Amino acid sequence: MAVNAEEPEPEMSASSQRALNRLAAVGLLVGAAFGLAGTLVGSPHVQASLWAIDSVGLVTATSLLSLKYFRAGSQIVAAGFLVFAIGEGVLLSGTAAGPSGSVPAFAAGTALWAAALALISAPRMLPSWLRLLGAAAACLFATTAARIYAGEPLLPTSSPLPFFCYPFLVATLLGWTWMLIREPTSGSD
Asked: How far apart are CA 132 and CA 161, in angstroms?
């Protein structure tokens, strides 16, 4: 059966929209909570486990959000969430190596996070305050990645950067969650 390129995609039902929003919100909350907890714990094994859970939650959430925004016709925001998912996957690949062993994956992942946050925050799709948080996180993670690529030995828990990038990222994740929870769904079940 041939697909007619002229026909628009069918609208997502309200229940499907709510399910997608809930799953993405849970993934974002898991990512925010476990990521922050992993940054604050002392044990490398516990940290790796918390960051692995964080990464899986964020890859799931941002993949769903990429599909959501693509279907809504906002390709730049959709691409941003897709790049975020890829960056988070790169970060996940280094988690088991511990803080010092994960530096190459961390540098690549934070560079992708910076690009993703910039793509998501550039269009006027989200509220100004949330775009500003995302842009600040993008700048901080871009600086972190650039410093690592320039040869600075920064661990994922180094202070001041990247340690002080995480509150901006977590606030952005919580903002995205807030947007999903308060979004009205249209259509009928």
From this structure: 19
Q: Residue 141: which residues within 8 A CB-CB, separation 6 or more?
A: 110, 111, 113, 114, 117, 162, 165, 169
- The CA distance from 84 to 61, in Å, is 10
pTM: 0.89
Neighbouring CB atoms inside 10 A of 182's CB total 8
Each domain of the chain, given as residue ranges in start order, spans 15-182
Which two tokens mark 33? 């909570």
Question: Going by C-beta distance under 8 Å and a sequence separation of 6 or more, which residues neighbour residue 140?
Answer: 161, 162, 164, 165, 168
Residue 183: φ, ψ to 5°: -70, 125
Q: What is the pLDDT of residues 94-136, one digit of tens each?
A: 998 988 899 999 999 999 999 999 999 999 999 999 999 999 9
Encoded tokens for 14: 């309200």
Half-sphere exposure of 2 (CA within 13 A, CB side): 3
